[in-house]
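User: New here, any thoughts?
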Amino acid sequence: MDLFTQVARHAAQLKEHGYSVIENALAAETISALDADLAPRFHRTPFCQGGFYGETTKRFGRLLAHSPHAEALVRHALIISIAEQILLPWCDCIQLNTTQAIAVHGGAPAQLPHRDQDMWGAPKGSAEYLVNVMWPLTPFTAGNGATLVWPRSHGAAALEPETSGQPVAVEIPPGAALLFLGSTLHGAGSNTTEEVRRGIVVGYSLGWLKPYEAQWLAYPPDIARRFNPELAALVGYRQHRPNLGNYEGQCPSVLLDEDYDPDRPLAATDALRPDQLAMVNNLTAERAGVS
């Protein structure tokens, strides 16, 4: 199946059901290598504080700084294309919202069902703000806390006072990926086993939103300078037209230039949408004609 067909199929499932599963999205070896890289950090990270994050759960971010294998998840071509299909009607470009490692330990209760779009106090029901991707590092089962998803709880249904229907425990192995919308009701299930359920969530949001994870702090120029340009753009080293997220009036990617001089003044440069650029050009032409 070609990329276009796959994107269309999964985007349609997201729009209809609020979630979709990609089987064999990455080789198990890549996931295993990432899990091994993150193991020391999982070990050192304390349990969360607070009932939402879960006091029998461990979480940490900045995964692109902790393992080179994280890039394979973040820049997955099919998933990026699906996220763009869902989000680009409301933005000029998408951005990385977060990368977070999660370990749900044995005995953990089910997480409070929630919608991730609620982190932004904006109107809901039509626009989608976020596409999340859950990547298992260990097998997700109904017993060990597999992500619970409420089908058809997204979009306009998110405005209803109560959600009808029962949740689905999405049981998937490492290498598979669960995609769900920011408007979809979901939460980690209870872990009734003695094993630790480990996974990664990678989120993509509208490029003009304030992201969940402060990307420029997570990946300052000294780190982002080593990134592929497309990855650097995803974590925020690009402008969102018109002129949003600029640095001294220019694209923040200038900070990644090897010869960048912080003492050298920069010329603020337009970064406009095509419709805005046309308006400026028309005005300039009119003025030239008058003169």
Observations:
- Residues 28-44 form the longest helix (17 residues).
